[in-house]
Amino acid sequence: MADAKVIPFDDDRSRARRRPVRAEGEAAAVRALPGPKEAPGEPEEPVPAPEGAEGARESEAPPAASGWERRLAGGLAFLRRRVTGEYEVDEFGYDEELTDQVLMSLLRPLYEKYFRVEVKGVENIPAEGGALIVANHSGTLPLDGLMMQVAVHDHHPAGRHLRLLAADLVFVLPVVNELARKAGHTLACAEDAERLLRAGEIVGVMPEGFKGIGKPFGERYKLQRFGRGGFVSTALRAGVPIVPCSIVGAEEIYPMLGNAKTLARLLGFPYFPLTPTFPWLGPLGALPLPTKWTIQFGEPIPTDSFAPEAAEDPMLMFNLTDQVREQIQHTLYKLLVQRRSVFF
């Protein structure tokens, strides 16, 4: 299989829809320019068509392709580009075409039909330029990050794409590693995050990490520590706003009642969950419960008013980190009060 073309990350094409590139020497399609406007008061006399010409034009016009034919043609063209390598990825491995046409299509039924995600405040994400979305993390498996990615992709008025920062474990797992790169995820490090933000991308981070998704069910919706404020420092250096995000519903998909720590160490996992169904029901126990989700994006917190050296001020980072954390926690409590039930 041919290799895909790698485009520089700071190329504008990494953030815009791809336009077909005309090969050197290839003739471009010529579009006729509109004719001169009629002078006022001198309407142009219509030229009568030759007898039978109208019927001939109707008979020569190709019939409009049906919906399934267009989809089939599009699918075949997509497969041809994949086989021949006529597609582009950025320096992080992000494949926008594959994400839009395949990965989002696979996640969308889970998002719309299974978890029935309700999205609020998506307009708080800037229409252009970089921004850092900071969200709570829960659910034993990181499905909340994927659902947040679909929410931004499908509901943002400007059609923005979310680039998630993922833990090291994601990039050592076979298959998962390749899919994560194709979907635009990258390693959760300050250098990659800052580079993405300076390039005008929307970046998502969940500072709780494994402490958030691996916490017991009894501590659901109680935020864990947000680290040492590294995400705030990154946003300050890039001069981008921080958008708090609160996710309700993910805590109950795998109620974690225990943690088999010995087994987790043997497998190299941060935890090994014990839920009411897993591992007792085998593969069937890995099916998440169909809870009702709400994802709310809060008011952005601007950082462009601070000087670049403010990123080295530990007190400022502590205050901003605490502000973001408190806003997420307050919104979680508010959404929980408004929720009718876990499943409806």
Helix-strand blueprint:
Blueprint (H helix, E strand, L loop, with lengths): L4 E3 L45 H8 L6 H18 L3 E3 L5 H19 L3 E3 L10 E5 L7 H13 L6 E5 L9 H7 L3 E2 L2 H9 L3 E4 L4 H4 L16 H9 L3 E7 L9 E2 L1 H7 L5 E2 L19 E4 L16 H25 L6
Parallel strand pairs: 1-2, 3-11, 4-7, 4-8, 5-6, 5-7
Antiparallel strand pairs: 8-11, 9-10
Please supply descriptive tags for the structure shown above:
344 residues; alpha/beta; 7-stranded mixed sheet; two-stranded parallel sheet; 35% helix; 12% strand
Task: Count the DSSP helices.
Answer: 10
The rough form would be described as globular
- Look at the helices and sheets and give the structural class: alpha/beta
Count of β-strands = 11
Chain-averaged pLDDT: 84
> What letter string, H or E per element, gives the SSE order?
EHHEHEEHEHEHEHHEEHEEH
Q: How would you characterize this protein structure?
A:
The protein has 344 residues and is an alpha/beta fold. It has helices spanning 53-60, 67-84, 96-114, 143-155, 176-182, 190-198, 210-213, 230-238, 261-267, 314-338, and strands spanning 5-7, 88-90, 118-120, 131-135, 162-166, 186-187, 202-205, 242-248, 258-259, 273-274, 294-297. The protein has a seven-stranded mixed sheet with strand order 3-11-8-4-7-5-6, sandwiched between helices. Helix 5 (176-182) links the parallel strand 5 (162-166) and strand 6. The longest helix has 25 residues, at 314-338. It is globular, with a radius of gyration of 25 Å. Residues 12-47 and 52-62 have low confidence and may be disordered.
